[in-house]
Amino acid sequence: xxxxxxxxxxxxxxxxxxxxxxxxxxxxxxxxxxxxxxxxxxxxxxxxxxxxxxxxxxxxxxxxxxxxxxxxxxxxxxxxxxxxxxxxxxxxxxxxxxxxxxxxxxxxxxxxxxxxxxxxxxxxxxxxxxxxxxxxxxxxxxxxxxxxxxxxxxxxxxxxxxxxxxxxxxxxxxxxxxxxxxxxxxxxxxxxxxxxxxxxxxxxxxxxxxxxxxxxxxxxxxxxxxxxxxxxxxxxxxxxxxxxxxxxxxxxxxxxxxxxxxxxxxxxxxxxxxxxxxxxxxxxxxxxxxxxxxxxxxxxxxxxxxxxxxxxxxxxxxxxxxxxxxxxxxxxxxxxxxxxxxxxxxxxxxxxxxxxxxxxxxxxxxxxxxxxxxxxxxxxxxxxxxxxxxxxxxxxxxxxxxxxxxxxxxxxxxxxxxxxxxxxxxxxxx
Length: 430
Fold this sequence. Notes:
Blueprint: H1 3-28, H2 35-60, H3 68-97, H4 102-129, E1 133-135, E2 141-143, H5 156-166, H6 173-184, H7 186-195, H8 202-262, H9 264-281, E3 291-292, H10 293-311, E4 315-321, E5 327-328, H11 333-343, E6 352-361, E7 364-371, H12 385-402, E8 405-410, E9 416-423, H13 424-427
Parallel strand pairs: 4-6
Antiparallel strand pairs: 1-2, 3-5, 6-7, 7-9, 8-9
Helix pairs in contact: 1-2, 1-8, 2-3, 2-8, 3-4, 3-5, 5-6, 6-8, 8-9, 8-12, 9-10
């Protein structure tokens, strides 16, 4: 092969490798069955056919062997034919990428297909009269008198540019620039290729544009995936809050109901405390960001005051707070204290103690909620699904909001200890 042929084959072999890698990556994508991704995979297949046809045409160009003519003729015809198919495929992908109405999409695709059809017909006719190109007796490729016609479909990329600019407001700036680059890149390369023989970089340029488009699409999908994960996490938090609030409200209202007939004065105090709890904390229950521990402690003290009204001397609260100046997710401590009361100390006739302690450790801030109540066997099947869900909600929010963790240890009759670890990045925001 000549130096030009060797250079072209080398560039297109590299392009084949890039195309194959893109196809494999796209095939491994979890969303490969979406319409947009199927179209992109189709584009990669067509581009692969173009590159294989081009390499074959260069390999057999000028080969005197009798069988070489069949390969040369088929390869050159396939090269131009798949160019036109690539144009239709790219337009189809573009019109799915941009949120167009289905009817408008069909109109554009029909227009592109109708415009490409005459060139396919001329390509077929050229196999007999050599108007676009012809293969001589030595199996060498020769340009015909109207060779430039083969590149006229490149002008259809201008229609795509029109569509992109028309709907630019529906696109992010990065999407707009990526699509414009993909559509405009063929113009100068094709123009140069019409007038310059030898090195033909159009196929490589198209492959590079597909690589850039793929990179942009993957970045966008990654961004959307993160947004969906964040939305799901927020939804889980909302569900968790909706589970906690009705439960606490129910217990408090039940306690007030029971006190009204037995001790109206104490019931009045409980109503006042409950009102203060609602006034100070209803807005906080919607809080998505980390909050100061002092705010969580205020919420906890009001809650415990209400619980003390219910359980009297059976419930004893001990605070051992070495550090108070740090941040944590809302409703982190209160659900654990509630578990200690409901499933720990109140399960014993004589009641017991619940201790809330904070310590500054090397890893960050450690919060310990311990009780000397009934305890349980962690290895045994959990008979209380609600308790398990509540603990798991706290664990998930700690991990999602500040990278924190929750560990639980217990033994039958030996009480339960819950340890929360807030890493430095959580405490540093105080």
